[in-house]
Amino acid sequence: MCGSANDCVVAMSEFIAGSEDAFVQMMNDKAKELGMNDTTFKNCHGLDEDGHVTSSYDISLMSKELLNNHPQITNYTTIWMDSLRDGKSQLTNTNKLIRTYKGATGLKTGSTGLALYNLSASATRDGLSLIAVIMKAPSTKVRFAEAEKLLDYGFNNFIYKEFAKKDDIANTISVNKGADSTVDIVFSDNAGILIKKGEDKNIEQSISIDENISAPIQEGQKLGSATYSMNGEILASVDLVASNSVDKINLFTMTKSVIYKWIDLLR
Questions:
Q1: Whole-prediction pTM
Q2: Given 3.40.50.2300, 3.30.470.20, 2.60.410.10, 3.30.70.1350, which CATH number is that of 165-266?
Q3: Is 172 exposed, middle or buried (0-12, 13-18, 19+ CB in 10 A)?
Q4: Which of 71, 122, 183, 247 places its Cα 20 to 30 Å from the Cα of 153?
């Protein structure tokens, strides 16, 4: 990740899949799954080969998947300098933005004789994470400068408006015929949207919760939704779910509840 070690990639592919060819097939299957329709992998390292192609849009999809689902990757993509073999080998990150651009988190450079100089640059500021992809730049200096322009445009014109975090309580509601009389309804995921600066005040939140909720209820069961809209257009929607399971009341749980209430009265 720091020094574009193609030999390491080949070793990894053989370890994971048994052979590079088998691993490349896995890469192409994953690309199709992610909607990378302009991409065909012919090898695992990216060096020039007939038919080995991609696009800036597909690189952004791949980068987004990596950052969202494997955030620990930035532990490595943000290393500026390191050493191996008791200091005998030195590593310097090929992505110079790590050192010069505020909030840079990665992600990866690439260059070949045909593809020229390429970069998927990621950065995070004030909760907003952006990806800028540069392809076929004539020089390494140009690729970094163009990536900075794209990232600057994003940070200068957009914000990430957060409304709630995953597992935040949206409401506490009554449960009919439940061993517990109430259940907390929580957000199933982070609730937020990317929006132009200055427009966040126009966003409306609408919370809809199912009526007459009865036990049994399973933890994670959808009981409503939170919707965010602006000028009548829905921008985002997040499910609201039960924070815990609630069993249906029966003779045992009813007796248990009566005993506990009786004990409380005697205290």
A1: 0.80
A2: 2.60.410.10
A3: exposed
A4: 71
